[in-house]
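Researcher: Sequence recovery benchmark, item below. Answer with residues only.
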């Protein structure tokens, strides 16, 4: 009888902790709004991509390129623009780049900015092409975004990849923490 009661108690505890874990997972899923595109959205020269992160019919961010030339060089800048009162995590005018799992937050000289932020720059000089900027260019990385709505801020990320060979960039997906001022890590869903 004691063995039966002990077994029942252990099963009850195990089932209860499993239920708590299940509720915790469900709660976290309800906090993060996530979209992964089946076909990544391309942006490049002459082709901008507008992101309506909260799906309210108003564009929140624009991914685009601008071309600037001087005497011998042509610079194509791949940019993310925060629209309305939204912001992008930036460092000295460049989009702050997060690796998978890094927290999306201000840190040191990385701060939220409403200005356009450069993702990567392509330079043609003397018939040679080069790429520069904080973006590595060889893998998908994340840009921190802040959606500002009804006086509240919602932190998130946008996953971007760059195809240097075809001179195109792609938005692969994004996530927003639905809890005001809630934390989120790059790639968290």
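Model:
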């Amino acid at each position: 009888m004691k063995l039966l009661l002990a077994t029942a108690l252990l099963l009850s505890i195990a089932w209860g902790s499993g239920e708590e874990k299940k509720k915790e997972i469900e709660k976290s899923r309800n906090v993060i709004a996530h979209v992964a595109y089946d076909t990544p959205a391309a942006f490049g020269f002459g082709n901008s991509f507008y992101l309506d992160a909260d799906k309210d019919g108003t564009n929140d961010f624009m991914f685009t390129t601008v071309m600037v030339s001087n005497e011998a060089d042509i610079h194509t800048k791949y940019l993310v623009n925060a629209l309305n009162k939204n912001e992008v995590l930036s460092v000295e005018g460049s989009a702050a780049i997060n690796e998978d799992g890094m927290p999306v937050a201000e840190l040191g000289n990385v701060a939220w900015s409403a200005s356009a932020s450069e993702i990567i720059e392509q330079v043609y000089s003397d018939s040679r092409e080069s790429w520069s900027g904080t973006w590595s260019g060889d893998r998908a990385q994340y840009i921190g975004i802040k959606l500002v709505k009804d006086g509240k801020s919602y932190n998130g990320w946008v996953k971007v990849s760059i195809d240097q060979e075809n001179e195109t960039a792609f938005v692969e997906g994004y996530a927003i923490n639905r809890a005001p001022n809630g934390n989120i890590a790059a790639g968290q869903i």
